[in-house]
Amino acid sequence: MPQIPTEVQVRPGVEADLQALTDIYNHYVRETALTFDTAAFTPEERLPWLRSHPEDGPHRLLVAKDPDTRHNARHVLGYATSSPYRPKAAYSTSVEVSVYLAPDTTGRGIGTLLYKALFEALADKDVHRAYAAIAQPNEPSVRLHDAFGFRHVGTYTEVGRKFGRYWDVSWYEKPLLSRTAPNASPDPSRSRR
Predict the structure, then answer these.
(1) 76 pLDDT above the threshold of 70
(2) Cis omega before residue 48 (within 30°)?
(3) Which of 41, 115, 130, 157 could form a disulfide with 45 if both were Cys (CB 3.0 to 4.6 A apart)?
(4) Confidence band (pLDDT; 50, 70, 90) for 187?
(5) DSSP for 97-145?
(6) What is the pLDDT of residues 112-157, one digit of tens each?
(7) Would you say residue 173 has pLDDT above 60?
(8) pTM of the full predicted structure?
(9) What does the alpha-carbon distance between residue 29 and residue 157 come to, in Å, rounded to a whole number?
(10) d(Cα 130, Cα 150) in Å, to the nearest integer?
(11) Please, which contacts does 65-72 make with residues 24 or more away whose CB atoms are closer than 8 Å?
C-alpha cells in the first residue's frame, strides 16, 4: 500500500461538500469510462444520493479533505461510499463500495486512507460482504482492491457502452467480519448426506 498521508482528514460527507463531490464525480462522467453515467449532474440532482448515506449505518459517505486550504489546495480530495448492493431485503448485509478521487490527487494514498476508514466504520455494522465493480482497464483500482483483500469473482464482458465502444466490468468481493453479525447457522437444505 502507498504511504498514507497524515495531513488528510476523513469525515462523513455533509451537504456543504456537495458541489465538490459533484465536481469530482462529473470528471469521471465526462472524461472516463470508470462510471457508466453519461450525463453530468448538478449538485441538486446529487442531493438525494448524498442524503442516502447517513453518518451512521451500513451506507456511508466518507470524504477526504485537506485541512490546509491556504495555498489553493483542493478542500475535498475524494470520497468513498458503501451503498446498497441490491434493493431486495435479503441483500441487506451486502454493500457495494467505491472510491472517487479528484483527478490531481491520485497516487497519494488517499484511496487507501478512505477505504481504511470506511471498513473500520463498517466493522460494527451488520455487513457480511462488500462488492466493487471496476470498469476495465483500471489497474490502480484493481491494486487498491487487492490490497484490501478483495478477490476477483467474475467479469461482465462488454456490458456497458460509452464513448462509442463497449467496456468490461470486473466484480470483486471482500468478506467482512462484522462484530455484530449473528452467528450463521448452516442451512439444512444445503447439507450433504
Answers:
(1) yes
(2) no
(3) 41
(4) very low
(5) EEEEE-GGGTTSSHHHHHHHHHHHHHTTSS--EEEEEEEES-HHHHHHH
(6) 999 999 999 999 999 999 999 999 999 999 999 999 999 999 999 9
(7) yes
(8) 0.86
(9) 20
(10) 8
(11) 65/8, 65/9, 65/10, 65/11, 66/7, 66/8, 66/9, 67/7, 67/8, 67/9, 68/7
| pLDDT, position 193 | 39
C-alpha cell at 112: 487507501
For 37, the grid coordinates are 453515467
What is the C-alpha radius of gyration for the chain, rounded to an integer number of angstroms? 18
